[in-house]
From TrEMBL:
Coiled coil: none
CDD domains tied to this protein: NAT_SF
PROSITE patterns: GNAT
EC number(s) from the headed UniProt entry: 2.3.1.-
Xref: InterPro entries: Acyl/Acetyltrans_Enzymes, Acyl_CoA_acyltransferase, GNAT_dom, YitH/HolE_GNAT
Protein's name according to its UniProt entry: GNAT family N-acetyltransferase
EC main group: transferase
Domain N-acetyltransferase: 15-149
SUPFAM superfamilies attached to this UniProt entry: Acyl-CoA N-acyltransferases (Nat) (SSF55729)
Origin species: Acetobacter lambici
Amino acid sequence: MTQTATSPPVLHTQITFRSMQPEDLAQAWQLSKDLAWPHRLEDWEQMLALGNGFVATTADGSVVGTLLWWQWGTQAASMGMIIVSPAWQGHGVGKHLMALARQALPGYRLHLNATSAGVPLYEKSGFHSTGVVMQHQGNVSTVPLIPLPEGCRMRPMGAADLGAICAMDQAALKLDRSALLLRLMEDGRGILVDSEKGILGFSFCRKFGWGQATGPIVALDQTFALPMLAYWAGTCAGQFLRVDIPQDETVAGLLDQWGLLRVGSVVSMVTEETENDTSAQSPTCFALCSQALC
Ligand SMILES: CC(C)(COP(=O)(O)OP(=O)(O)OC[C@H]1O[C@@H](n2cnc3c(N)ncnc32)[C@H](O)[C@@H]1OP(=O)(O)O)[C@@H](O)C(=O)NCCC(=O)NCCS
């Protein structure tokens, strides 16, 4: 069906909305490639395997809109990969995809990271901003080791650590991302920092997009997070590495020095705030898993 500037498409007669199927992923991938987003087909496959999605299709079966969402426990979920092809933007496709996802997640607290193009849509869908996520990436140059405090050690993660890292992740993000962390253990490399007192931080590095990505990095404080970040950057020396961090000038400054320059930012948005944990030992997320998965 052809569209011209003088004959805008009529959404309800020309577009069908349905659940995303694995067969849709090649076309979904094309939509993200057209935006110069770095995701590989494998990244889309992994994201759909962990969650659910909707697509908007035209009468000839072309996928012109996508939205993925992930349930993290029974009360919270995140959304991402919300894309409408340029020819169909501004005709309510994004709004309808959001409405379908919200219907599928009744009563859930929703999280997403919004591009500037997405912010108006999400504000109209009941989201408000909570902060900024900075995207750093590049070919890693030399990275000095950052030592851990005495009595702490960094070691590879093992299957027996899953329960402890899930608990730490949940304390930091207020999301039950056990399924994601299990998948990262299988597909990526994980390390943690521990001491006699227990686990003080954990992190992952995996293949993603144009090279490697590190995240999530969760730790009790920077003393434990920065050595893990330096470790991953060191293991990726000479390779392309991406890291998405909540706004933090110390971490951003180090990444810049290592050749991982800030190339963009997104706005973190939620439908509902969680209560701040004021206990001194509450862990913090220093790097996201990805902008889509949070
Ligand atoms: C963001 C995006 C998904 C929006 O989809 P869309 O189908 O064009 O949006 P809709 O037509 O459903 O618009 C929904 C609402 O947002 C508003 N809106 C959308 N884009 C807007 C913009 N750039 N500025 C102001 N308002 C905007 C619309 O006016 C509409 O509100 P209304 O119903 O009250 O008029 C689409 O522009 C897109 O794919 N952009 C590129 C990829 C991207 O950045 N995705 C977001 C990732 S987080």
